[in-house]
Every structure is written in C-alpha cells, then in structure tokens.
Write a structure and sequence with these properties.
By secondary structure, the chain is α+β, with helices and mostly antiparallel strands. It is built from eleven helices and eight strands. It binds flavin mononucleotide (FMN).
C-alpha cells in the first residue's frame, strides 16, 4: 500500500538520504545506496518529494492542480524560514476584519475555488486532509441558506419562550436552553423580526457568497483542521480584495439540526465546523483595530 503512495525513481536517486530524515513516519530508508519505501505508515505529507534534490520522488495522491490558482500567479519556490517579511504578514493579519456590510457585487467562482485551494495549504492532524468545502456562490444561495438558519432559530426562540420548560430542564441539569434564553434570545428575536420584516440579513450581513468548511469521518482533529483552513481563507480573502466573516450562528444551527446540511446537499456523514461569509466589503477603516491585553505565562522547566 505504501509503495502505491510513493514512487521513487532509483535511477535519479543519488542516495543522499534527505528523504529519510524528513519523513515523519519512517516510511523511507536507504538500501544499497538508494532510497526505498520500506515500511512505516506513510501519511502522504510530501516532505520526501519536496526535499529531494534529484526530483526522484513522487507522492501519487498529491494533486498538482490543487496548487494551481486561476486568479493569480503563485510563487512556486519554497520560502525558507526567515525569508518572508514579517511586517507585511502581520499587517495583513491585523488588517483583516470581520465584515458585516457587503456590497451586492458577486464573487467569481474562480476566486472562491482559489480560496478553497489556499485553505488546504493549512496543516491537518496526521495529514488527514479530511476537510470538505461547500461553496455557496451567489446571494441567492446564501439567502436560501440563511432562511433555513432563520427557521431553526425561530423554532428555538419559540421553545425558549416556554419559561416552565426552561426551568424544568435547568432543574434536571440541562441548563442549555435557559442559558440561550438569557444570552441570545432577545438578539435573535430582533434579528428575525428584521429578516422577516425588512428582509435585513443580520446573519450573513448581505454577503454574496459563503464557504462552508466541514470534515469527512476519520480525521484525527477535524475541527482544528477545518478552522486552520478557514483562517487561511479569511486572510487570503482580505489579500484578494474580499471581506469575510465567520458565521458561528450558522455552525451552531447546523450542528443542532442535521436537516439544514442535508437541504444544501451536504451528506450527513460530514461534520460542519466553519461557515465563512464572503463578498466585497462596503467598510473602510482608518486604522488597525487592536486587541485586549494578553499576558503570557512562562514555565521554565
Ligand atoms: C468561531 C467564530 C464565530 C463567529 N461568529 C460570528 C457570527 O455568527 N456573526 C458575526 O457577525 N461575527 C462572528 N464572528 C466574528 C467575531 O465577532 C469577530 O472575529 C470578533 O468580533 C473580532 O473582530 P475581527 O474579526 O474583525 O478581528 C465569529 C468569530 C469566530 C472566531
């Protein structure tokens, strides 16, 4: 099985052994001065192929198309640590804002697909790459999805209005509904009234696209993988001229009501971890927003 994942051209291999040093699973070893697949449990990370000076190794499951972008030209060359300007990177990270005011301008599918590809440059636990991406490419799709979320919260608010039920559940140790009532009920009620009345979209902020990031079964760290990919997408979106906003309310609704994901064609096997609203921002900031103080702790051993 490992042999099918990695192809080594023995004629090209010069026996330098670099592949054996970077392989995290001990899959490759040197034999008679040549690299060979000898065991371990290959996770297809591609490190062996990336380090080989002879280009003698190929990881068969790595799809080159995933590193080819339609809307910009990506530098192919590997950047060693310290070779990318930190100042520009931090400026990008700190300038990204959660956008809550999108214009009506649609987002090209090619941009959305490039964002997905940028998302999957993120690390994943045991390189499982078990993430899934569902693209809502238009305002129509986002509105229809938002309608399903609104229906879920409408029902939840109706249930939360039942004081006796809330208190009974709290008494038997299920305080979730009561907590929801005190923290969210009023906000959601106001948002739903605006949604049903003036058609104002307080959930997706009028975004013209969205990407839903989930996971297939079998990943070791599915939520972490998805959120790391999501952060890549948020940063890249800013860089590509788009606004973005994580929509936690949509994730919460999908986790509680599986019929929502089925309604938008996502298999019940998938678990949803992030919903990202995307579009062209109608916001302009004068400066970077900043953060509250955090004091690091040290442990000296
Ligand atoms: C997990 C998560 C869920 C979020 N859900 C929502 C949401 O449902 N609606 C919204 O407007 N913003 C949402 N946000 C955005 C946060 O409110 C925002 O990140 C925070 O206020 C800081 O602002 P900034 O992103 O502009 O730095 C979410 C952020 C995270 C990380």
């Amino acid at each position: 099985m490992q042999r099918n994942k990695i192809g080594i051209d023995r004629d090209l291999c010069n026996g330098c052994g670099l592949c054996t040093t970077v392989c995290p699973t001990g899959t490759i070893s040197l034999s008679d001065g040549k690299a060979e697949v000898s065991g371990g449990d290959c996770i297809s990370c591609g490190h062996c192929a990336a380090v080989c000076p002879q280009e003698a190794i190929r990881v068969t499951v790595i799809d080159d198309e995933m590193s080819q972008y339609k809307t910009f030209i990506a530098e192919k060359q590997w950047l060693p640590p310290g070779k990318h300007g930190i100042s520009g990177l931090v400026q990008l990270m700190a300038s990204r804002r959660s956008c809550r005011c999108f214009t009506d301008k649609p987002v090209d599918r090619s941009i959305l697909e490039d964002l997905m590809k940028i998302g999957i440059t993120a690390p994943s636990g045991t390189n499982s790459q078990a993430w899934t991406f569902t693209i809502l490419p238009s305002r129509k799709a986002v509105t229809s999805f938002a309608g399903q979320i609104a229906t879920y919260f409408g029902k939840l608010n109706t249930t939360a209005e039942k004081t006796m039920l809330r208190l009974f559940l709290k008494l038997i140790g299920k305080g979730e509904l009561d907590d929801y009532y005190h923290s969210y009920y009023r906000k959601i009620k106001a948002a739903l009234e605006e949604w049903h009345g003036a058609g104002k979209d307080r959930l997706f902020h009028n975004s013209t696209a969205a990407i839903i990031v989930g996971s297939k079964p079998g990943a070791s760290c599915p939520a972490e993988d998805a959120l790391l990919a999501a952060q890549n997408i948020l940063l890249a979106a800013h860089s590509m001229g788009l606004g973005s906003c994580l929509i936690g309310y949509a994730v919460a609704a999908m986790k509680k009501d599986p019929s929502i994901q089925q309604a938008i064609g996502i298999s019940s096997e998938e678990e949803i971890h992030a919903v990202i609203a995307l579009g062209y921002s109608d916001e302009a900031y004068q400066r970077i927003a900043g953060r509250r103080k955090v004091i690091p702790k040290y442990w000296e051993g």
